[in-house]
Amino acid sequence: MLEKIQGIARLSGELAADVDSLHGVAITRSVHYDQVSLWFLLRGCWQPERPFALNANIEGRPVPMDARLREIAASLPATLTLRDRQDHLALLTRWFFSNWRDGEWLPFDSLDSIPYRKLTNAIHRVAAGKADTPAQGILPIG
Question: Element (H or E) spanning 47, and its range?
Answer without folding.
Answer: none
